[in-house]
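2024-03-11 09:14:02 INFO receiving multi-entity request
2024-03-11 09:14:02 INFO entity count = two
2024-03-11 09:14:03 INFO echoing inputs for audit
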Amino acid sequence: MIIWRDLNQAMVMSMLRASDGDRSSRALIVIGFLLVLLVVTSVLSLTAGAVGITTSEVFRTLALELVGGETDQTSSLVVLGIRAPRTVLGILVGASLAVGGAVMQSLFRNPLADPGLVGVSSGAALAAVTVIVLGIPAPLIALGATEFSALPFAAFAGALITTFSLYIIATRSGRTSTATMLLAGIAIAALSGAATGVLVFIADDQQLRDLTFWSLGSLAGATWPRVSAILPFIIPGFITAGLMAHGLNGLLLGEAQAFQTGINVQRVKLLAIVMVALAVGASVAVSGVIGFVGIVVPHILRLVIGPDNRYLLPACALTGANLLLAADIVSRTIVAPAELPIGIVTAILGGPFFLYLLLRQKGLVDV
Amino acid sequence: MFELRDVTVQFGQTVIVEQTTRRFRGNRFTAIVGPNGAGKSTLMKLLTGELSPSSGRVLFNGLDIAKQPARSLAGYRAVLAQSNHLSFPFSVHEVTGLGLQGTSVDRKTRSRLIRNALESVELSGYEGRLYQQLSGGEQQRVQLARVLCQLEASSAPDDEKFLFLDEPISNMDVRHQIKTLQIARQYAREGLGVVAVLHDLNLAARFADEVIVMCLGKCVADAAPKQAFTEDMLERVFEVGFEVSADGEDHIRVSLCDIVDTPHTPSVRP
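2024-03-11 09:21:47 INFO inference complete, emitting structure
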C-alpha cells in the first residue's frame, strides 16, 4: 500500500516536472511501474485456468522446482509444463508485437503503420501456412530441418519480404507516402490472404486444424520447445531495437534531418526492417496473427511518455507483454473450459479503444 | 572549408545545377538568392552531403564529402532544412534535444544547451508545449534551436564549423526573421561559416557578407551585396523591375519599381 502511494506521488511529481517538456523521468517511473505490473500479471497467468491452483501453490511449486525439491505431480505439471511456457510465450509475443509496431511506425514515420494492418503478419502467416501444407523444400530436409524448426524461419522470411516490398513501394526519393503504404499494405494483405485461401483449399483435415489458429491467433500451442524455437529470433530482434533507439528518433525528424544530425540512415532503415521481420515472424510462427497490439500499445505510450524511442521501446515491450498476458487470461477463462482465440480478444479490446483515442486526440496524430 | 569543384546536378535531361565551382570558408555569412527553381536548395543539399552531384566533386576539409561518415560530418555542420514535418507528439524540449543525439554530453550540459538554444530563438517557456500545437513560424524556431544545439555541442573549433539554413525565415514574423539572421551573423562573427538560402533581398543585403545570385542552375553573381545587387542584374534574374539605392555608407536598399507585366521567359540565361 505504501509503495503504491509513493509511486502515485512520484507519478504526480513527474507529471508536474513534465511541464518543462522533459518526460524522461516520467518515462522511467512508467517503466518501473510496468515491470511491477508484469510480475503481477505473470502470477495471475500462472494461477488462472481450468485446474484450480492457488497463488501460494504456484509460488511453492516454483520455489521447490528451483531448489530441486519434491513437488506435487499435478500442480507441477500444470504450472511448469503448461502454464509457465504459455506465460513466457505470452510475454515474448506481446513484447515483440508492440516493439515491432513501434519500430515500424518510426521507420515509416507514421503512427498508423502496424504489422497487422499493413500485411506483414499476413505475409508471415502465408509463409508459415505454405510450410505446413506443402511441406519443407527437399534441400532443407537434407540439412536436418523439421516442420517445427522451419516454421519460425519461414514466417521470418515472409515478414521480411513483405516489409521490404512495402517499404520499396511506399518510398519515393526518401519520402514515405502514408496513402501508398496503407493501400499497398491492404493489397499485400489481400494477396497473402488469397494465397493462404488456396492453400487452405488443398489442405487435408489434419492440416486444416493446424491452420485455423493462424487466422485468429492463439497461445494455446505453447510448449517449452516452442519458446526455445523463437528465442533465436526474438533476442536478436530486441537487441537490434535497443541499439537503434537513437537512429529511430532521428528518422522521426525526416531522413535528411537524420543524416544531418549524424545518423547512418541506410543502416538504421535496414536494421529496422530486419527487426520488424524478426519480431513479427517469430510471433506469427508460434501464435498466428494477433492484431492491434502493435498499434494500440505504442500509441497509448506516446501519449503518456512521448515518442522518444529510448524510453518508448522498453515501455512498449513491457506493456505489450502485460496486455497479451491479460488478453490470454481472458481468452482461456471467459468461455472455460473452451478457449476464445486471443486475436478476437485483442481486437475487441483494441479496436474501439484505438478509435476512441483517434477521435479524442485528433490534432496530435497528423497523418 | 566546403568546396564545390565543377559540380553538375542533373535529373534525367533537366540540369538543376550547372558546372559550379565555389569555396565556402569560415567567418563569412553567405546568402544564396534567386528565383524559384534556380537550384538554390540543390546547391545547399550538395554542400550538406544530402545529395551527390552527377559530376564534379564536393569536398569538406579537402576530403570527398560522400566518403565521410554522417556522424563525423554532424560534428562540423548543422543544417536547418526547408520543411520539417513531425508526425509524432514531441514536446518542444524533446525536439530541441534531438540535436544532441549521439553526442556524449552529460545531463546537466544537455539541459543547459537546450535552455540556451530556446532562449536565443525566444521560445523560453515553450518547453512543455507540443510541437504540433505550434504555429509554422514557431515550429521553424524550434527546429532552429535544435540545429543550434547540435552546433553548440560540437567540440570542433569554431572556424571549422558550418551552419546551413535553407529558407530559415520563410514562416517567421518580421521580428524573428531579423532575430534569426542576427543569430546567423553572430555565428559568422565568431568564426563559423554560415550559408543561407533567402528570398528577401533586403535582408540578404543587410545581413550577409556576400551573396550568390543563382539563375537556371548557375551562379550569375557572387560578391558583396553592394556589388552583386545591381538593378540590371536583379531585373534579368527575377524578371521584375528593381530600384537599388544607397542606404547609409555600407548598405543598399532594394525596392520594387512600378509593376508592369513583362512576359515570363523561363529559358533566358542572363
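2024-03-11 09:21:48 INFO post-check: The first helix of chain B runs from residue 40 to 48.
2024-03-11 09:21:48 INFO post-check: The interface with chain A takes residues 45, 48-50, 69-75, 77-79, 81, 84-94, 97-99, 101-102, 111, 126-130, 132-133, 150 of chain B (CB under 8 Å).
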